[in-house]
User: Fold this.
Amino acid sequence: MGVYIYRFFNDFLLDEPTPEQIATFGPDAEMRAWLDAVLQRRENGTITPTEQQGLAEYERIQHIILLFKIGDLPYLNSMT
Assistant:
């Protein structure tokens, strides 16, 4: 899922989203289903190392998305 997450985010950025699209950006249905399942396994203590790594990648991307949403990426803002 890690590669899928990066590809999903990369494709979104390549489409040059509007501020409104950035504000409403979130995981698609497939990613939400995966996330729900992995979070449940983590809660139950049955998460695999691969799933844990994918979850960490998802959290990194979510942090970047949050920075985009609040406009706190000055090096990107200066490029426009």
Q: What stands out?
A: Residues 49-70 form the longest helix (22 residues). The helical segments are 2-14, 19-24, 29-44, 49-70, 74-77. The two ends are 31 Å apart (CA to CA). The chain has one domain: 2-77.
